[in-house]
Amino acid sequence: MFTNLEHLGLAVNDLEAATALYTSLLGNPPYKREHVASEAVDTVFFQVGGSKIELLAGTSPDSAITKYLAKKPEGIHHVAFEVDDIRAEMVRLRSEGFVLLNEEPKRGADNKLVCFIHPKSATGVLIELCQSVGAEHPQTEH
Q1: Are 128 and 116 spatial neighbours (Cβ–Cβ below 8 Å)?
Q2: Does the pTM exceed 0.85?
């Protein structure tokens, strides 16, 4: 079950410049910076009420963010929703005809298990499913 708009992911070319801009815009500094080696991205998170803004910058030419920015301008890259049970949602969404980009959830930024829905099956929008990793949601390595 989808429970919350978790965050908007924004692809940026210059993470430091974007961080300064969003710090000024939102009036607060980011609460977290994180490198996600498996995705070759650096991330910065801002809290905005009950949701978040995630800035993403590629750290290698093979990064999905680097490739994305080679074709498109900076801006919204994905919309992320919190879910109660990511595996159950993956099964449900496959049965509804959505194309998932992951066979299994993988470890993402901000202490989450994540899975992405292909934009071609979601009106051109990359959708991320997020489940918090914690006592009730054991970490899975994939």
Answers
A1: yes
A2: yes
Burial grade of 42 (CB within 10 A; 0-12, 13-18, 19 or more): buried
**Burial class of residue 60 in the structure, from the number of CB atoms within 10 Å of its CB (0-12 exposed, 13-18 middle, 19+ buried):** exposed
Question: How far is Cα 106 from Cα 90, in angstroms, rounded to an integer?
Answer: 12
> What span, in angstroms and rounded, lies between the C-alpha atoms of 44 and 73?
19
Each residue of 86-98: pLDDT tens digit? 999 999 999 999 9
Q: Which domains does the chain have, with CATH numbers?
A: 2-132 (3.10.180.10)
Question: What's the one-letter identity of residue 96?
Answer: E
Coil, strand, or helix at residue 41? strand
